[in-house]
Amino acid sequence: MTATNVNAAEALVAMGPEPAVPADTERRVRHFLHYESWLLDERRFRDWVDLFTEDARYELPVRVNREEGQEAFSRSRAFDDNKQTLEIRVERLHTEFAWSEQPPSRVRHYVANVMVAPGRASDEFHVVSNELVFRSRGDSVAYDLLSAQRVDCLRDSPNGLRISRRLVMLDQTTLGAHNLSMFF
Q1: What gap in Å lies between CA 64 and CA 16, rounded to an integer?
Q2: Is residue 105 in a domain?
Q3: What's the structural domain count of the chain?
Q4: Which residue range(s) make up the domain with 125?
Q5: Residue 176 has what pLDDT?
């Protein structure tokens, strides 16, 4: 098992069947995730990037099919960004060179099964959630539907919660989508 999967498994096991944080903390985290989804759905990408810490990491490993008990993710990454590279990707969307987003996609993010546990530091929280992303483009009847599990480390800051790490694990090994120009 890689460090990526160990961290996800540790976060899930640490949560257990009982709430690991007070109800007001869980409500605050859920609101943050819903607000983040709204920013993405409204294409407010610059505001979305502001939700990341300066030392943030945003990863989407490539899933592979293996025998039972073997690694399910390769060392390859579809995304392996820090805040600076996320900002570059966002700024590119505001240029004439974002061909994959002409016309812009219509996207909806649905976040569910949110579980929150205390993080390693007193100002951090481990958050595991499932996400369903719907995307349609132009006048096409075709659409993309992507399902993923996210493992986040949220950090409390003077400006509220911020994402210091996001690991997105898509459920599909072969994507029917023509590109991954959306964020998770």
Answers
A1: 28
A2: yes
A3: 1
A4: 3-170
A5: 65
